[in-house]
Specification:
heterodimer, A: mainly alpha, Arp2/3 complex 21 kDa subunit ARPC3, 8 helices, globular, B: alpha+beta, mini-chromosome maintenance (MCM) complex, domain 2, 3-stranded antiparallel sheet, 2 helices
Chain lengths: 217, 133
């Protein structure tokens, strides 16, 4: 993405803000920032803070999008020995979920949409539509679950609901594009594969979170 | 947020049990019914095959010469050949229960199994995106 050209702004904002020593490279600049979303040092000039905030969001969204693409490539190159063809773990949802939990709704949606557009460009119209419908429905359902249940929800529960919603969205899209499909024959597959994929992505997300925290994004 | 809560076990159990129950009721409702296969090309019905046990035979799809279906001796139908990249349609395998379907999405071909005498009033009847069945 545009990360390269934006880096100097980050360094500048950092240096002028807290007065700490500007380290070489963007990773170090980023590493000084807090994880919890409070980005601007109170002493920082507002413009610089605003600019660095936007730059940081852009860079992070780009990174998450890149992560989503890498995860789907990894997933496609490792065939799963599943009895049901076409069922995938949906590892790239890890990136969307990370964005949803730790960045913002908008960033999560933009990653889901960008991923859909990438599929559209690389694998064609139908695959793109399926990716978009599944991804957007999945994210919407996960956000609803999080709003409704708040702290009573777990990563696993949110992830499972998202995975089932993803499957359902794709099923509905296929039904409308091609021909009516008989739901009862497929509902068990949608549910069980949603549970398996949901658990897998939740566990992997949990494994990945400490790595992100070490990056101090 | 926690990775896992005790209530998740309950949620997962309910989902799995529901899936098993749906599968059980669905398959017992439709098994043993005489069926036919409907072949769709981008939502248009382009062929119908009565699925009766007997001679094994191949069914070409006129709209796409790279896709070939086969009815096996036991009266099931499957994709045996397709030029699509991931071969999901071929790996779907044999279809023989009313309600099952196999899809070759890149080529726009879907095979759908329907009861030979049509769906009855008492059947579980959720068909999504259907146009006039």
């Amino acid at each position: 993405m545009n990360g390269g050209s934006d880096r100097p702004h980050m360094g500048a904002a950092k240096g002028s803000g807290s007065g700490s020593i500007a380290l070489n490279g963007c990773d170090h600049g980023l590493s000084e920032r807090k994880i919890n979303g409070t980005l601007n040092d109170p002493s920082a000039m507002e413009n610089a803070g605003e600019e660095s905030h936007r730059t940081r969001r852009l860079a992070l969204s780009g990174m998450m999008f890149a992560l989503a693409l890498v995860l789907s490539i990894v997933e496609n190159s490792i065939p799963l020995p599943l009895p049901v063809p076409g069922v995938k773990l949906g590892l790239s949802n890890i990136a969307v979920m990370y964005a949803m939990f730790f960045l913002s709704k908008g960033q999560a949606y933009s990653i889901a949409v960008l991923k859909g557009l990438f599929v559209l460009v690389t694998r064609g119209l139908i695959a793109g539509i399926l990716s978009l419908t599944g991804g957007i429905l999945s994210l919407t359902v996960m956000l609803i679950v999080m709003v409704v249940f708040r702290d009573r929800a777990s990563y696993t529960a949110v992830s499972i609901s998202g995975a089932i919603a993803h499957n359902t969205g794709q099923f509905i899209a296929v039904s409308f594009i091609y021909t009516g499909m008989y739901l009862w024959a497929y509902l068990p597959v949608l549910l069980v594969s949603g549970v398996v994929a949901g658990i897998a992505t939740a566990v992997l997300l949990r494994v990945i979170i400490p790595a992100f925290e070490r990056l101090r994004l | 947020m926690k990775l896992f809560r005790k209530t998740d076990i309950l949620i997962i159990t309910v989902i799995i049990v529901a899936a098993a129950a749906i599968w059980y009721f669905y398959s017992s409702a439709v098994s043993g019914r005489p069926v036919r296969a409907e072949i769709y090309y981008w939502s248009d019905l382009v062929g119908t095959v009565e699925l009766v046990p007997g001679q094994e035979r191949t069914i070409p799809v006129p709209q796409d010469e790279n896709v070939v279906l086969q009815v096996d001796a036991d009266g099931s139908i499957r994709f045996i050949q397709s030029d699509c990249p991931d071969k999901i349609c071929v790996r779907t395998g044999r279809l023989y229960l009313a309600g099952q379907s196999a899809a070759c999405l890149p080529n726009g071909i879907i095979v759908k199994i329907v009861p030979a005498d049509g769906w009855r009033a008492g059947d579980p009847d959720i068909v999504i995106g259907s146009s006039g069945e």
